[in-house]
Amino acid sequence: MSKVIIPGHEDKDLYDDYTELLVQKDQLEKEAVSYQIAYTQEFGELICANFELKIQCIKVKKSISYCRRRLNRGLAVDPAKMDEEIEREMKAYYLQRDELQKDYAEAKKAGMTDGITYMRAKKIYRRLAKLLHPDINEKTQQNAELSDLWLRIVKAYHMNDAQKLEELGADSFERDYSDLEERIEKVEREIDAIISTEPYTYKEILEDEEKIKELRNTLQAEHDDFEQYLATLKHALEEMMKEEASKVIWLTN
User: Phi then psi for 77, rounded to 5 degrees?
Assistant: First the structure.
């Protein structure tokens, strides 16, 4: 790997504060991912089931709307054309459903890394981040080789792969940075944003059995409501077709 030399600077303490904040931010982002996974493992099945019911409700509502438009204009209802139009309108919902199901499937497969490996990976990453983090070493963004190395380091860190991180060890760098105080303030704002928003705030729920139970009950109640609403919509569609039977011509193949 080509070695990049960055001129040294005098304010080492400020620089060290900055690098520590960057490592802290990356760690918080990693924790946020772990909370997202744990949250999905805990509640993903109900969330997916609820969204599937929501999709069914939307689809029946669209069917009702389609039929009513045709009835009001005295036109025939072609089931094939109705299905085609509704399926086209539902594509965005199907994509969202597929993403939820994919996230849940991946979360179920996610494992936990033992504490020793986790701490070892964190220690190695901390050392490498001080040398190659793009917010510290601008050459990482400018040099394709360094940029690729950093991406591989981040990937290995997210997987807690201490062995891979050791293999990706970088050379020593001299350091130089101006406007460190402004940079520190920026990272501090980013850290505040991480810890005050989802998925990091899932931590409050996941560490409290009562909150877990409460949310599961809420999701179950939502599931029951969707089931009742879906039954109501289906009944409304059936009744509408019965009442307007004399006006409707169902086109069939």
Answer: -105, 115
Place of tokens 């996941």: 206
Q: Give the max Cα distance, the chain.
A: 89
Range of the domain at 94: 12-243
In a domain, 6, yes or no: no
Hey, which residues does 250 pair with through a beta bridge? Answer: 77
Q: What is the pLDDT of residues 86-136, one digit of tens each?
A: 999 999 999 999 999 998 988 888 765 555 677 678 788 888 888 888 888
d(CA 83, CA 81): 5
197 secondary structure, DSSP code? S
pLDDT in tens, 165-200: 887 874 445 455 567 888 899 999 999 999 999 999
Question: How far are the Cα atoms of 62, 63, 151 from residue 248, in angstroms, in the given order?
Answer: 17, 14, 61
Across-strand partners of 77?
Answer: 250
- CB atoms near residue 159 (< 10 Å): 12
**188 falls within a domain:** yes
Helix, strand, coil shares of the chain as percentages rounded to 5?
Answer: 75, 0, 25
**Residue 7 resides in a domain:** no
